[in-house]
Amino acid sequence: MDRKQYCVKLSVQPSRGLMDEKFIVQVHNVPPGFQLTIHAFHKCDDGHSWEAFGHYTASAAGAVNVSEDPSLGGTYSGVEQMGLLWSLRPVPGSKPGLRMRKMNVQTPMEVSISVYQGHQTEGLVDQVPLTSVVVERWYIAPGVRRVPITEGGLTATLFLPSGPGPFPGVLDLWGGGGKLVEYRSALLASHGFASMALDYLTPKITIETKKIVDNQYFETAYRVLEQHPQVLGSRIAMLGLSLGTSVTLKLSVYSQVMKLRCAVCISGSHVQPPGGSLEQVLTCFRENAGKTRINEEGHIIWRDLLLPIPTDPTLKVDVGQLQCPLLLVVGEDDQNWPAPESAMDMKEMMEKAGNSHLLTVLSYPNAGHLIEPPYTPHARFSKFMTVDTRQKVMVLWGGETAAHSRAQEDAWRKTLIFLRENLYGGTNPGATSVSHL
């Protein structure tokens, strides 16, 4: 192609948007039938480089629209409007087991979108593209305030939506990796919820005392959220992923302090010892470590640690006592937690107790454990540091990339609807439904 004759034009709209917002990628001014590669490149906060690309053929008008035209190959195929984000993978030569996570939400994820001649698969970063643009993806919308919280011995960050408020609140718990992970809370605040990201495994108080926090720590977090002048204290939800689900379910049912409007549990289980302190839950995992499996690639599979689901009701949270709407999000290929089996058992328990009208289950075939906000690149496995032993292991999370990515998009949309319905009110809370993609 003669570069002088054809001045290739590339547009990405919006060029600056939220992480869960779709963009439209269009290429114009190429020869009809021209073969081209559209490539995305991102260098993340930890310095590792990621790429995704699709192969396209220009129309008779000399154009490509990624939201309408199929990719014929690359890291994704078919018509996939956001394939350039969700199929991002570490560049060749990267160390194995990487997982992309935005640790500083106050800066954008910058992605270079470029067009190259021909259908190419490697060495793209070393070539000069026909044209290129940089897009910004933000977890935090303009006007959202980030407020570090240390009162009551907490290690937390509160994200407040723009505007005067007050707003409904969400207490946001991640899983067994510890640390203060903020990006989901920042995105929830961008959608109108005052969201508090809480570090409960590696908070300052645990580092200083060498003691795992007890239930009072979570109740303190709830009270801080409840009493904040910009939070509607009677409209608070909990959202937990993985180990965060164990805490969320336990407190939803048994806490005398926390009066939740609703709860969201992603990729977790109700199986835990009686009394169910966090320390006891972790001890239960250690005691069942003999059930760990390792696949041919040497990846650790932990889903059997809580299997079989006990019939003894004292060995699981009595969800039959639950009095608020509950949304369960399940990946049917979860290799880390027995989320599908747990969801089925919780549904049976609630049906027997007569409160199944409060339950909604979203179950996704070929989705894995790490069901994150939309367009987060899928990690089928990654390096994981256990909190108690500080040992790095390669853990299998499960999932098939395209199906997992569709699950993330669908689950996030339905989670926001569920939170809006139950925290902003106006609709019938918690109608029973089970949906499969």
Helix and strand arrangement:
Elements: E1 9-13, E2 16-18, E3 24-28, E4 35-43, E5 49-57, E6 64-65, H1 83-86, E7 89-90, E8 109-117, E9 131-138, E10 145-149, E11 156-160, E12 167-173, H2 183-190, E13 194-198, H3 204-209, H4 215-227, E14 231-241, H5 243-254, E15 262-266, H6 278-287, E16 293-294, E17 300-301, E18 326-331, H7 339-353, E19 359-364, E20 381-385, E21 392-396, H8 401-424, E22 433-436
Parallel strand pairs: 2-9, 12-13, 12-14, 14-15, 15-18, 18-19, 19-22
Antiparallel strand pairs: 1-3, 3-6, 4-5, 4-8, 5-7, 8-9, 10-11, 11-13, 16-17, 20-21
What report would you give on this structure?
The protein has 437 residues and is α/β, with parallel strands linked by helices. The protein has 8 helices and 22 strands. It has helices at 83-86, 183-190, 204-209, 215-227, 243-254, 278-287, 339-353, 401-424, and strands at 9-13, 16-18, 24-28, 35-43, 49-57, 64-65, 89-90, 109-117, 131-138, 145-149, 156-160, 167-173, 194-198, 231-241, 262-266, 293-294, 300-301, 326-331, 359-364, 381-385, 392-396, 433-436.
Strand content: 25-35%
* Shape verdict: globular
Number of strands: 22
In whole angstroms, the N-to-C terminal distance is 43 Å
Helix/sheet category: alpha/beta
How would you state the average pLDDT, rounded?
Answer: 94
Please tell me how large the radius of gyration is. 23 Å
Number of helices: 8
Share of helix, binned: 10-25%
Q: Which stretches are poorly predicted, pLDDT < 50 over at least 5 residues?
A: 427-437
Strand order of the largest sheet: 10-11-13-12-14-15-18-19-22
**Major beta-sheet overview:** 9 strands, mixed
